[in-house]
Design a protein that fits this description.
The protein is an all-alpha fold. It has one domain. The chain contains four helices and no strands. Helix 1 runs parallel beside helix 3. The longest helix is centred in the last third of the chain and has 31 residues.
Length: 123
């Protein structure tokens, strides 16, 4: 886990170089929601992989049974890259793009939660 922290710190520092102050309060709130949804997704995915033998991750970039560290690293890279891309996006599109990203991620989180619930109720 210590190695993960040393990997994440430079990534976070790079993403913080973007101009957060130029974002509207609504955009900042939407991006904060995006981070929260990613954290929820990490938690749900990790719990299901640990607790239910038949559950596998379908994202080919991180493998069928990723470790918690791998899940966190993947989400950190994606979130940092998303931030940088959004910061370079014209402001007239940023809020809409954030809403779409959050909507898609919310569907993923709800689906993952439902899959775990559905499997557990059968036991």
């Amino acid at each position: 886990m210590k190695k993960l922290i040393f990997i994440l710190l430079p990534l976070l520092a790079l993403s913080l170089q973007a101009e957060w102050k130029d974002w509207t309060e609504k955009e900042q709130d939407l991006f904060t929601d995006y981070i929260a949804l990613n954290l929820i997704d990490i938690h749900i995915t990790n719990r299901h992989i640990q607790d239910i033998d038949t559950v596998v991750e379908v994202n080919p970039l991180i493998g069928n049974k990723p470790s918690l560290e791998r899940l966190i690293l993947h989400k950190a890279i994606i979130t940092g890259a998303s931030y940088i891309v959004l910061d370079k996006t014209p402001q007239r599109y940023r809020e809409k793009d954030l809403k779409i990203m959050n909507g898609v991620l919310m569907v993923v989180v709800l689906h993952n939660g439902y899959v775990g619930f559905d499997i557990r109720k059968d036991f």
